[in-house]
Amino acid sequence: MATKLVIMYADHPISDSNEQQVAVRTRNELIEEYYPLVRTIVNSMLAHLPLCADADELHSVGVTGLIAAIDRYEPRHAKTFKSYAGTRIRGAILDELRRMDALPRTRRAKVRKMRATVEKLEQKLGRAPTDSELADELKLTTKQYEKFRTSAEPVMFVSLDQGHNSSNDEQPDLHETIADERTVPVLQRLEHTEMIDEVSQLIESLPERQRNIIIQYYYEGKRLSDIAEVYGVTEARICQIHSQAVAKLRRCFQKIGAGASLEEVEAAKV
Predict the structure, then answer these.
(1) DSSP 53
(2) Do the Cβ atoms of 74 and 84 come closer than 8 Å?
(3) 162-212 pLDDT, tens per residue?
């Protein structure tokens, strides 16, 4: 069952004379009624935000602010619910924008100061100011100005879902051009598959005892001492056979790396 809330209509301020107009409303009804207020506030704030600001994301945050306003509204402490909700919605959005802000406060202050200085000199000179003029206006040395200008450069945000500035519909979005580090490139995957096939074929071409020792040691995870017991020989002898097999495989790969085909290497019986 929806929680019942005692709340004031938006167009009736709280006073002793109209307390009778306070109505019992359900939480869901209030959300539905004031839901358009969130969109109105978001649209008004977007005009003062960077282009990278996501209206839908800010709207979602604004809705959480509306819900918080409904849950915490006390008619005695606010004139109307609409004004109270508007404050809570704006506050929630501003908190989210601060959380997402990539610039610390000191750097943002420098950005504002640089922008204001540029605008002031543009109006005064009728043209874009030079770096030396900006340094003089800011009362900074050349070295200090270079450092200040670097720290006052605003961060540029680019939407990964935004396409290239081109009329060509076949141009991919930016996120489609960024490589996924978790994905193995197709060529690398094919090369890896081919290498596994070559290793398998080269192992199959080894003499039977060498082949079995390689398989038991690398694929079955047996120790050389365990393999020695299977063949009834010393561990040193198994180690010797293992070394011979590995050396032969290494020579085969060296030949393949030099341009020889797998068939040529097998035929040579390295």
Answers:
(1) -
(2) no
(3) 555 555 556 666 666 666 677 767 777 777 788 888 888 888 888 899 999
Q: Output DSSP code: residue 7.
A: E
CATH numbers and ranges of domains, the chain: 4-100 (1.10.1740.10), 105-154 (1.10.10), 186-268 (1.10.10.10)
The pLDDT tens digits of the residues spanning 20-77 come to 343 445 777 888 889 999 999 998 888 777 666 778 888 888 999 998 888 888 777 6
| Residues in CB range of 212: below 8 A, 6 or more apart | none
Q: Is the dihedral of CA 175, 101, 41, 74 positive or negative?
A: positive
Do residues 38 and 62 make contact, with C-beta atoms less than 8 angstroms apart? yes
pTM (2 d.p.):
0.38
The two structure tokens encoding residue 18:
């109209």
